[in-house]
Amino acid sequence: MNTKKKFNIAVFPGDGIGNELIDACIKVLQALEKSIDGFHLTHEFLQAGAAYYQRTGMDITAETMAKARQADAILLGAMGLPTIRYPDGTEIAPHLKMRTEFNLYAGVRPVKVYPNVPTPLADKRASEIDMIILRESTEGLFASVGKGEVIDDREARETLVITRQTCEKLFKVGFEMALRRKAKDGKGRVTCVDKANVFRAYAFFRKVFKESAAQFPEVAVDFNYVDAMALDMVRRPWDFDVVVAENMFADILSDLGGGIVGGMGMASCAELGDAHGLFQPAHGSAPDIAGTDRANPIATFLSAGMMLEWLGMRHANHACQSAADKLEKAVEKGFAAGRIQPMEFGGPHGTQQVTDAVIELIEKK
After folding, report:
1. Rounded to an integer, what distance in angstroms lies between the CA atom of residue 10 and that of residue 225?
2. In whole angstroms, how large is the CA radius of gyration of the chain?
3. Per-residue model confidence as pLDDT tens digits over 282-324
4. What CATH code is carried by the domain that includes residue 142?
5. CA-based, 20 to 30 A from 14: which of 2, 64, 97, 132?
């Protein structure tokens, strides 16, 4: 009798390097399935993005959105191309539609240094960087996407939106995440990042955060203005654990996070809601290196690992959680042993070599 839990994954290869990185990621996921019994992933490949828009005039169809909604999880490659834009000049980004349609309010952006990965920070404590930037992904300034206005070619306006309901859910995710990390010898700390000293909306954000913090007395809390946080992410990033921030602020800080841990090729991402989860690397589609075997696939792999962890927690499937842990350890061991040296960092290993190394480490008994 087959007792494996089956999960249907909606897979969007995306644009540029997204296609080859998703291909590599599927091979890694298949290796994990063979290595750890108890789950099975089916992959439904779907089309959306800039190249699709160029061919069809649509960024994504209603039918494809419906399939993504019905899936157990969504795995995306990088989307968007700099030369292809909507008529108003904005990028082709159907994943932003998914955030809104599926209410993916919690963007999880890990910032972690792996062994032997070069960081621009000279301080030896940089090797201790291990934090999460938790990005509110449906509101903030991004609530204005598609709604902004240009008045008589002389003035442009966008509107920031912050609601109590979304903040409370986001902060709950952050505090629960800090508790789980504390149980694994983490700091058990949540930092609220805002600009509460200037804007009423951010003062409200901080007010709701304080109210939520009162429900989690075992978690330490602190506060930082976004400009000071940008400084501190260079000056003392090893002091932070879970950082929560409004959409635009967290978008910027998470890219800074990628920079201090080696590059965007290390920047994984999960977009979580109450009923859906979307997983993708946080980097762009890099069309200049597409098809050259030079792209770093680690961010895509780590995003897939977050997908497995989320599926395991959501469905009480220990096999998925074990697979996520095994993938994380394979990446750590690969960097520590010098078996993973991506070209992104000046190393000799292209996409295929990095993929092969990760798979070999997964298969190793």
Report:
1. 38
2. 20
3. 999 999 999 999 999 999 999 999 999 999 999 999 999 999 9
4. 3.40.718.10
5. 132
Give the dihedral of Cα atoms 207, 182, 324, 73; nearest 10 deg: -20
Neighbours of 74 (CB within 10 A): 24
Range of the domain at 255: 119-261
| Residue pointed to by tokens 């032997």 | 116
Q: Which residue in 129, 138, 219, 237 sits closest to 172, CA to CA?
A: 219
Mean pLDDT of the chain: 95
In angstroms, the CA 172 to CA 188 distance is: 14
| Nearest alpha-carbon partner for 137 in 179, 95, 200 | 95
Contact predicate 206/226, CB 8 Å: no
Total structural domains in the chain?
2
Residues 139 and 250 in one domain: yes
What is the distance between the alpha carbons of residues 129 and 112, in angstroms, rounded to a whole number? 5
Looking at the structure, do residues 133 and 180 belong to the same domain, yes or no? yes
- Angstrom CA distances, 20 to 17, 78, 272, stand at 6, 10, 25
Residue 167 Cα distances to 55, 136, 202, 233, angstroms: 39, 8, 11, 23
d(CA 5, CA 270): 22
Round to whole Å and give the CA distance between 340 and 116. 9
The dihedral formed by the CA atoms of 22, 27, 28 and 34, expressed in degrees to the nearest 10: 150
Structure tokens at 57: 């005039």
Helices (H), the chain: 18-35, 50-56, 62-70, 94-101, 164-183, 200-213, 226-235, 247-260, 298-314, 318-336, 351-363
Q: Which tokens belong to 200? A: 């009423």
Q: Label residue 3 by pLDDT band (50, 70, 90).
A: low
